[in-house]
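Section 5.1 Outputs to date
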Amino acid sequence: MPHQRRPQVRPCATWLCVTVLLGVCSLAIPAGAGELLPKRLPVREYLHELRQQLTEKSTPQRRQWRNGDSLRLPIPAAPDNAAGLVPRQPMQPRAHLAQRPATATWPDASSSIFERYWWQILLGGSLIILQGLLISALILALRSRRLTLDALHDERNQLEARVLQRTQELMQANAKLEQLATTDPLTGIGNRRRMTEQINRELDRGRRFGHPLSLLMADIDHFKNVNDQYGHEAGDRVIVAVAKALADGVRNIDMASRFGGEEFVLLMPETSIEVATSAAERLRQEIAALEVKGDKGESIHFTISIGVAMAPPDNTTDTPSTLVSRADKALYQAKDAGRNRVVSSG
């Protein structure tokens, strides 16, 4: 599978900082725009200043201002002293807004708000548009990042699924290899390697729990004559029949294996030598009653000889080889005694 380059995820922190900064600017500029406007004099302050100026003017100037068209201010007449009246205080001049000078301006009577704040409005609108564009770019970047992360997650899940599948295939292959390495291909029962490992485990378990361990070694009598008279295929059928009888005639905790050629080993945990000898005699009789057909349909009868040995639980020197050796000696004693019999090592 070619290597696929993973897409890179671009960070969006810069876009987010720029967007927040522009948002703050768009809110701060219109708020402080009023401070940048030219200050205009309110109407009340303008009138007060105008009164002060008129008070300081001389009478000819006041008359001149009174007869003017630009501003008409009512000036009170002089007091009549001949009438004996108390002279009145001069009235403060009053200015009418309708008669203001042409140079005077009304501070609140300007044009529309857009004409007064047009550059602030344009700047704020531009910042809002730019902020919207940056927010859109941020949303697109986040969406692209999410799609990239989803692609990475899918790729990781697919990789994990492939690794799990390969692991299962490897475990199955190892189990198959282990089975092939510990199973006799002809009979389907365990081979010598598997039996040796099992004897080691059962010896340790017997010493730990105080149980005896018995071992039976069986050999087909005159097997060479069977091969010479009926052929090797018939001899293989005899071996398979003996292996099936041994495997089917024992308990679940017992184990039968083909030790090599026409020799078989039967391991019986938690079994004394007396019980093992009785079981060996029963198996010998069952196998003697078997019948196998030759290549031409002829009947083949055969017998086995069995040697029995036991490892007591208090014996710490026994090993698989010593236990098998004692059973093998008992087997040769059975053969020397005439075959088709069971002999125990005592």
